[in-house]
Amino acid sequence: MTLMGVVYYPEHWERAMWENDAELMARTGVRVVRLAEFAWSLLEPKEGVYDFAWLDEAIELFHRQGIQVVLGTPTCTPPNWLTERYPDVLPVDVHLKTRQAGVRGHRCYNSPSMRRFSATIVRKMAERYAAHPAVIGWQIDNEFGLNECCCPHCEARFREWAKDKYGSLEALNRAWGTVVWSGTYSEWEQIKPPLGGTAFKNPSYLLDWKRFETDAVVAFQQLQLDVLRETCPGHFVTHNIWSYPMALDYYRLCAPLDFASLDYYPNTSLEKAGTSGYGGALTLDLARGIKRRGFWIMETISGPPGCWFPMWRTPQPGFIRAFAWQCIARGAEAVVHFQWRSAPVGAEQFWHGLIDHSNVPGRRYEEYAGLCEEVNRLSGTLDGSEVAGEAAILHSHELYNAFQIQPQAEGMDYFDNLKLYHRALTKLGILTDAVNAAEDLSGYRLIVAPSLYLLDEERAKHLEDCARNGATVILTNRTGVKNDNNVCWIRPLPGPLAEAAGVTVSEYDPIGGELHAMVDKQGNSYACSQWCDILTPAGAEPIAWYDDDFFAGQPAVTVRKLGKGRVVYIGTVAEERYYIELFRELADEIGLTRLDGLPEGVQISVRRKGQTRYLFVLNLSRKRQEVSLGGTFASVLTESRVGPALTLEPYGVEIVEWIE
Ligand code: GAL
Ligand code: ZN
Predict the structure, then answer these.
(1) Which domains does the chain have, with CATH numbers?
(2) Amino acid 273: pLDDT
(3) How far apart are alpha carbons 187 and 80 in whole angstroms?
(4) 338, 349, 350: residue to mutate for ligand 1 pocket, most atoms within 8 A of CB
(5) Which residue from 428, 621, 408 is spatially nearest to 533, judged by alpha carbons?
(6) Each residue of 410-467: pLDDT tens digit?
(7) Beta-strand (E) ranges in 316-403?
(8) Which residues contact 44 (CB under 8 A, 6 or more apart)?
(9) Are 571 and 533 in contact (CB under 8 A)?
(10) Which residue's CA lies nearest to atom 1 of ligand 1?
(11) What is the C-alpha separation between 409 and 398, in angstroms, rounded?
């Protein structure tokens, strides 16, 4: 089932409106609503005093309309009575100032009061709705992030965490290399939060602090999850992650949940119109990669966004529909739009809903209604189909954090580079899974592994095995630099992968924003920037060379055949064109499935069900585009035959049953 849903806040509206809203939703084809994730002050207006009557009534209305309910636990918004009476709930910032209530997210994950009251409100809600036939699952809290709390509870917990991890101060001092600048700890009490950290602080300590912070969120979530698992064993439990890049480790966060959910707001502005679809494709592939299964879109765009910034453009005609299909094409099992109607009150009045404040359903609502009709009609067909790439791109929050702690060169951004490689794959029509760099990668035939800066022997061995077993493994600059403690290896780069890659880095130059030149075997010239590893092959064959500066003529890219596969090493960051050429050649040599000749802005994805493949062709641009399908196919959208040339209107969508 692919479920269409909306976010709804009964608490923002007069009761008299609820029934009409629920009734119109049902007529529109809405199958699920998310409720209550910020409603703590209504559910528990005073300490220990609960009021569920309003929520009972709302859930009942939806139930009567055949609409299912996902409930949010309201722990992102502790009410005023709680923060007033139990001030340890409030986080303390890096300037040691207590954060004030009045916005949201003002909660310390390690606060004893926060933990106690959270467990209680979640239990009360869970007990009340465990058996309600409309309620199908839970969203814990809302868009968790690291809150860098420096309160005494977090400080104490951090020490405990470090004790658990290292056992003794000696071991910790050794692992972090605290000998530098006389940083040796002689008492546990000397270990404190980094108060924001700076580039002058110890990078091993800073990275461990980030890990500790993730663990604090995971533990806070687990407290709620335990209650929900015990009380509502029949319900799913998820969390709506905010986008990427992210310091909080979503892999660890989502491990105990049933599936991941993503809040997805593609950019509507003209200048981003060309790229946001590609960035979005990566975000969706990452969301699918978190648990390597389908996921939910728990929020997505319904109108002009704004509030924290001047409003963006309204979604162009077709935008809401096309981006919802992009979610489904890349693995979403539900798409929940944020929100039903623009809020009349509060800070998000201008983060628009499907229906405007006027309460007159307009163009965006009509488009959404059409989308619901389509998705509901196709839901049976797509039911049970799955997205699975033959290629993988590796991602890691740990690497992201390590690079945030120590930026390597002007303009070198770990996540932007990931986007660059993924965009090249997407433009080539290669369906790619974006997966945790720490996972089992066997089975993938092409593996792009950007900057595996923290790398141990075991992980290196796994990648080497993948290559030996037939994969093309692509490594880039800043691979194998450090161990897991964020401490440099004393060996030639790329460290534990040097042998497998058949190459070492004899010297490097962090060229940053300067544009340099490189040339490939065919004599084509490309710009490169950020970084130049000057390579000495030891078994690998050069396939591109630098073309200027003191390293002109030295290898920039090498390939080494290894067992049934090969390892490619790219020592620099080139312009997109280079990756398109290189990946095309590599993919075609190993016969990866792909669709050639996609125009700019057009993306494909494939969902498989048994022997059947559904090919999604999405025009995420403002231009009419023509795509060559290489044959004629049955459209599952219109039940007509389409191709070999397919014309897509701006934000046009086609889905065909595909036989390669
Ligand atoms: C999300 C958040 C929602 C709402 C939305 C629009 O990030 O989860 O509660 O704030 O953005 O701003
Ligand atoms: Zn704290």
Answers:
(1) 391-590 (3.40.50.880), 602-658 (2.60.40.1180)
(2) 76
(3) 38
(4) 338
(5) 408
(6) 999 999 999 999 999 999 999 999 999 999 999 999 999 999 999 999 999 999 999 9
(7) 332-337, 391-395
(8) 50, 51, 79, 121, 124
(9) yes
(10) 263
(11) 18
